[in-house]
User: Which sequence fits this backbone?
């Protein structure tokens, strides 16, 4: 990933954490990595663990950010979540997969869209 793209990604993840915290989510972990994939944010809403993919774009020229969460990305997220659940022994909790779309830049966010149960 190029430096500029990584900067935009980091900015988006920080904005998403701030958004989620402000909406009652407890942030459990960010940038969870394992051999099967990566999860941008793991949060908890009441008794539900939420695995969140953050997609950030500076504008909407290339379509909606969440459109980049294709089948392959979903598969990696799902497998990484399974690994996390097993490693933390969280078998008795509910889970879901969300996406957060961020459109804007460090000086101005034009849109934050939280999509619950994306797949």
Assistant:
């Amino acid at each position: 990933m190029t430096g500029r793209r990584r900067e935009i990604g980091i900015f988006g993840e920080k904005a998403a954490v701030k958004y989620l915290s402000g909406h009652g989510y407890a942030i459990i972990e960010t940038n969870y990595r394992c051999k099967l994939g990566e999860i941008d944010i793991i949060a908890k809403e009441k008794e539900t663990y939420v695995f969140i993919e953050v997609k950030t774009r500076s504008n909407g020229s290339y379509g909606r950010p969440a459109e980049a969460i294709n089948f392959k990305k979903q598969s990696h997220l799902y497998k990484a979540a399974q690994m996390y659940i097993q490693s933390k022994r969280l078998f008795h909790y509910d889970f879901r997969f969300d996406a957060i779309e961020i459109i804007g830049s460090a000086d101005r966010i034009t849109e934050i869209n939280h999509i619950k149960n994306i797949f």
The chain has two helices and five strands. The longest strand covers residues 94-105. The chain has a mean pLDDT of 92.
